[in-house]
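Practice problem: predict the structure.
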Amino acid sequence: MSEQQWNAVDAYFTDLLIAEDEALKAAVADSDAAGMPQIAVAPNQGKLLHLLALTQGATRILEIGTLGGYSTIWLGRALPAGGRLVSLEYSPEHADVARANLARAGLDENVEVRVGPALDSLAALESEAAAPFDFSFIDADKANNPHYVEWALKLSRPGSLIVVDNVVRDGSVLDATSEDPAVVGTRRMFELVSTHPRLTATAVQTVGARGYDGLLLARVTG
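Answer:
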């Protein structure tokens, strides 16, 4: 199957199953206008995150990697009244765009975007001793994937779900000799998850508008 067919199938699914409203469309447009890389989740993947968070019954969500807030909107809309989402973004410029997009979507009171290196923000969250997160979505710099998973685990509870994006990387995850930091970080993340006594996990490959990639899903067991 060609990449053109992948994209056509994604478009078919999106047209039938995913209702992208003006807030979501505007989030994409504003992100593009700000010169952000076009690496946000596809609409069907955003809906998948939304359904996973709903199924999880998540009242507190952690997102590592905000970009323009497209996935943040999908996740924020899964929250019940009084729910909370904390999204971590390195770039102040990206965070400004995301905050505007979240406000347009009516989520600015439920979603907080924190700016700075994610590892620093995660340490700050731990120091605040807030309630654990029910759902974590990791989609930031891939070299730090093992550290992000470790932090998500620290900030979770038994039964929490951790989702990591972009784990296949066009198949380069198979290359044990790769010196690409994103591949090295992703492989180390898989090694960590595979042996961790508090995690049970699987990974799925995906093809579509975002190319050949995949997701890891891990449940905190204790």
